[in-house]
Amino acid sequence: MRVKLTLADLSGLPEGSFVRYTPIKMRASQNPWPIVSFKHVAAVMAETLKGDWSGLATVREFEARFKNYIGLPYALGFCNGTSAIYSALFALDLKPGEEVLVPAATFWASVVPILQFGALPVFVDCEDRQYGLDPEEIEKKITDQTRGIVVVHLWGIPSRIKEIKKIADKYGLWVLEDASHAHGAKVGDERVGRFGDISVFSFQTSKLCPAGEGGMALSAHLSLIEKMVLYGHYERIPELKTEFHGLAATGLGYKFRMSALSAVLGLVSLSQLDHWNRKRKERYEKLTSLLDPKKNGFLLSPAGTERVYYEYHLRYASAAPDQIDARIEALNRAGISAQRTRYPLLHQQPLFTSTLWREIAERKGARVPQDFNYSGSLPVTEKMA
Length: 385
Ligand SMILES: Cc1ncc(COP(=O)(O)O)c(C=O)c1O
Prior knowledge:
Blueprint: H1 7-11, H2 38-50, H3 57-70, E1 74-78, H4 81-91, E2 99-102, E3 120-123, H5 135-141, E4 146-152, H6 161-171, E5 174-178, E6 186-187, E7 190-191, E8 198-202, E9 215-219, H7 222-232, H8 260-289, E10 296-297, E11 305-306, E12 315-316, H9 321-333, H10 350-353, H11 356-363, H12 379-384
Parallel strand pairs: 2-3, 2-4, 4-5, 5-8
Antiparallel strand pairs: 1-9, 6-7, 6-11, 8-9, 10-12
Helix pairs in contact: 2-8, 3-8, 4-7
The structure holds pyridoxal-5'-phosphate.
């Protein structure tokens, strides 16, 4: 039976209702994401009809709701998570030749922007059974040039952020928390994204809170948010409390604002985030209970944390590479999208195994010592991948 719904009917759906609409291209797949609800469709239609597609009203509403959800006083929306990371590094005053401690198992945007400031990522090994930076390994890599640490809560598993924060405080380093995989995860009673000097989220379509493309930077420090405004949000410069109003007509050469249509998608996804995080947990636990723990290894969260479930990861205890490939193919044939680890380890990529990283950093003003290189290994990270 076909039911004709008007925009008013759709907009009137109560908070949290999940009338589900599956786009045609996704019907064949058994694990579609995002779950497109009629609330998304209605909200985009309503936003479109407003006509203010580059306006900030809906972006500001999304910023306000998201910062309340995380529990921080300030948030700034971005066109994607990558531009939020660039802006954060600018606000944290990263300079040529300085070093930033980073994981190797992450999406490139957590790490590569550092080179564009003439600064140098220094890869640190991760913990066994999860991909978070190992606090002990962090201390071994700190030098006179170290200025900060990028912490990534990979696949929704919180890193040991409180211990890492303590180390950062001890050595006077900043922490940039990349929570792009972990919307809603908790450490104790606090949501991840609350711990860094700046935290960054991505709302790209595959993420737990999808908005098409979009990002957000959050902080407890207004001064850091204001520097990020200066970097890529010229239209907000007149609102700044700092003395930079003279830059309102030019900005500093970047334009990073979030689209109103992304913001409205993000608002709906945020209203559904806890629901889908619960569903993903239930499904993860059910699937895991069906698998033999002797043959399969699972990523584990550190004690006292509540993870979320961005992707399902399995480590075979003993399987030849061709057996793994055969299993991946079988899953894909069954309509379940599966693959080997999605992020190739960054320290093994041509950007770092060739001299390209050095050329970029030096062009941006670094004087890189001759003996600085990326030839070392990260035994735990490499074993995990
Ligand atoms: C860990 C991590 N950081 C940063 C980003 C960058 O976000 P965006 O794709 O929105 O630029 C991503 C996106 O995939 C990511 O996975």
